[in-house]
Amino acid sequence: xxxxxSIPDSDNAATTDHRVPVTVLxxxxxxxxxxxxxxxxxxxxxKKIAVIENEFGEIGIDNDLVINADEEIFEMNNGCICxxxxxxxxRILGSLMRRxxxxxxxxxxxxxxxxxxPVAQTxxxxxxxxxxxRLDGIVTMVDTKHVLLHLDESSECQExxxxxxxxxxxxxxxxxxxxLDQLERRVRGMNAxxxxxxxxxxxxDLDAVLNVGxxxxxxxxxxxxxxxxxxxxxxxxxxxxxxxxNATLVVNDGPDPEMTVMAWKLANTTADAIAEVQDRVAVxxxxxxxxxxxxxxxxxxxxxxxxxxxxxxxxxxxxxxxxKGAYGxxxxxxxDEFTMRVEQHSKVLAAESEHVFNPEHEHDEEVTSVxxxxxxxxxxKKLNTWLGELLMTQGTDIFRMKGIVAIxxxxxxxxxQGVHMLFDGRPDREWGTTPRSSQLVFIxxxxxxxxxxxxxxxxxx
Amino acid sequence: MSGxxxxxxxxxxxxxxxxxxxxxxxxxxxxxxxADGAHVAVGTGxxxxxxxxADRGLVEHHWAAHAFGTLAVAWSPDSHTLVSxxxxxxxxxxxxxxxxxxxxxxxxxxxASRNTPWVEHLAWSADGLTCAVxxxxxxxxxxxxxxxxxxxxxxxxxxxxxxxxxDGERLSATGYGGVTVWSxxxxxxxxxxxxxxxxxxxxxxxxxxxxxxxxxxxxxHIFEIATCGNLEMTGYNQKVTRLAFSSDGKKLVTNGGPYxxxxxxxxxxxxxxxxxxxxxxxLPITDVAFYRQGLWLVTGAEDGQVLIxxxxxxxxxxxxxxxxxxxxxxxxWHPRERRVFSAHHDGWVHAWPVIR
Lengths: 461, 356
Hints:
The structure holds 2 protein chains of 2 kinds. Chain A is of the alpha/beta class. Helix content of chain A is 26%, strand content 33%. Mean pLDDT of chain A is 84; it is low at 1-15.
C-alpha cells in the first residue's frame, strides 16, 4: 500500500501520493456546469487538465484536453457484491493513463440526471484506476433558483447532494438571502459534511473544485467538526432532588401541541450523572410514547410519555416518585420554550445541574447524515463483521461513508471510505500522542442513528 | 539507431541485449509487425504513425496520422498496406511504397451526443481483401483499397475487441454483455453469445471450438461453441485484458495480475483444471504473445520487464529476460525469427533477439 507510516500531517501525506486527482462534477442541466468548466479551462492556474464531458460543449483550450464520452453503465458482479460502474470511464481513463504527457487533474462532467454512484464506484472496483488515479471529490452544482422545485420529488437531485463533497449554490444573485439561508439549511440537513460554496455565475475559488480532498477524511471533518457531537432526541436534561411522592410539571403555551419527556433515576444531581445515563435514555426515548393529558400522572420507566399541550393555558402533569433521591428529567424541547417549571410541595424547584443537548436535525428530509464518535479501540473482528453486515443490508441506502478508526493493537489509524456496498480501507499515519478516538460519518436514506450507534458501540474492544 | 545495446537486468535465464532501440515522441498506443517481418508500425499518443525498419531500427516513415492519439494499426497480409485508426474517429489507409496516404474515412457516424467514437480496433481478414474496423459501438468492413463496404448495426456498448474467426469469413466483437459474430457478407449478425459481464480482449482457439474472453470482473469467460457451454475461470487479482492461444491450441495464456496464467486446453478442455501461473513480473502484465509456432511465450509488464518463457519445460522460470526502465505497453514477436519487439510508456521501442 502507498500509505505513509510516519508522516505527521495529511498535507505532507498528500504530496507523496502521485496518483492523478479526479474531480467529478454533477448537477442538473442548467445549473451552470458548462460555465464552470469554461471558467476552469480559461483560468490561469498553470495546470494541465483533462476534461471528460458527457454533454457536448464547444470548449477546449491549448494545453488542456476535452474528450466527449457517452455514458455506459455496466453492472458488475464481484462475489456477493453487485454494483454499477461506468464502462466508458474505464476505457477513456485507461487510455489517458497510457499516454506519456501527464495531466495535473482530471475533471469528469456527468449528465444532468446522472446518478453519481456508478462514477464513484468505478474508482473502487478497478485496480488499475485505484493505483493510477485518486478520486479527489464530487462537486455538485445547484441552481439556487430552481433546486427547490426538484429537491422534493427528484431522487437524482437528492442523491447528487448526498454524494457531494462540495456543493456550489450557483446563481445566488437570483434569490433573496432568506431563500438562500433556507436552502442552505435544507442542504445541510441532507449532507452535513459537504463544503457549501455560494457562487454567482459559477465563479468559485478553483481550489474548491480541483483540490477538494473529499475522500481525505481529516479535511472533510475540518469543515464541520461540531457535526460529530452526538445528536439526541431530547434538547434538555436536568437533575433534580425530589422527595417521595408527586412532583408537578407546569407547562405553559409553546410552539408544539405535544412534548415527549422521560424521567430517569440518577446517581446524584451532577452533570456527570446526567452524562452517565444520557445514551441509555436516548435509546428508550425513540420508542412510541404514551399520551398523558393535563391533570394525569406518569412515572419512571423505559417508555417515554407524550405530554398533550393542545389546550391553551397552564397544564399540570404529575410525576410519581417512588422514593426520595436524584432524578433526571429529559425533555424533547428546551423547557424555556414552554415556560415550564417543576414544583414539589408547592415550591418551584430549580435543576441542580442541566445540559442542553445537540438536537437531532430536522428529519423531514429523507436523505440525512449521521456522525458518530467513540472513545477507545474497536475490536477488528467484530467491526469487520458488523460493517460487512451493515453494507449488505443497508448498502443501497448508504451513499457515502467515511471513517477514521482506532483498532485495538494497531499503532496506525485505520481510515476507510465507502460508496454504497463498496468499501476501501487502509492503515494511515500513527496515532502518536493524539487520543485514540474513532469518527464515522454516514450520508444516506433512512439512516437510523440509534441503530448505527448501537451497532458500532457493540464493536468496541 | 542500429548497434545500440542495452544490458538487460534479469532475475533468471538469459539476459537479452537490444538489437536496436528507437525513441518516439509520445507513448506508443499500438504496435504491429508486418507479416513479412520487415517493418514495425507504431501508433503514438500524439497521433503519429511511425514505420520502423525491423532489422536496423531506422524510422522509415513518420506520418502525422490522427488528431490526439493513434489507437490502432494493422498491416495487410501482403505487408503493403497499413491501416490506422485514431481518437479523431478516422480510419486511414497508407501505402508503404510510395509513401502516401491512400484513403480515409470516418469509421462511425457521430453518436446522439455528437460524440465521434474513437477507432480502437482493426483486423485484416486472412485473405487480405477486407479490413474490419471497430469505432465506438460500430463495426464496419472496408476494402483493401480503403472503401467502406458494409456497416453493421451498432451494438449496445462500445466494442472492446475485434477478431476474425479461424475460418477467415466471420468476425467477432466483444463488449458489455457478450460476443457478436457477423459474416462479412451479411448485415445481420450470424451468432450472438450472451453473457452478463464486461468483456475486454477475446481469442479463438485455432480449431474454432473455444472462445476465451477476459473480463472486467477479474475472470476469463470461456465459450464452448459446439455445446453452447460456458466456463467461468475466476481467482484473478485484476481484470483480464490480454489473452492468447498457442498455435497448437493447447494452451491459453492470460494476464490479470503480475503472474501470467496458463490454461490447458488439450483433450476435453480446461474445465475443472488448475492453471499454471508463471511468477516473474513484479507489476501487472500488460501484454502477452505466443511465438508463431511452438510454446514460446513473451510477457511484458508495468515493471518494464520482458520475459520469455518456454512452456515445454516443466520448470516455471523465464528462459530469457530483458529490462527497460519504463512500463511495457505492447509486445510482439517477429513472424519468423526469435526476436521480440517491445513498446514502452516512455516512448522507446526495443528489438530483443532471443538466442538459445
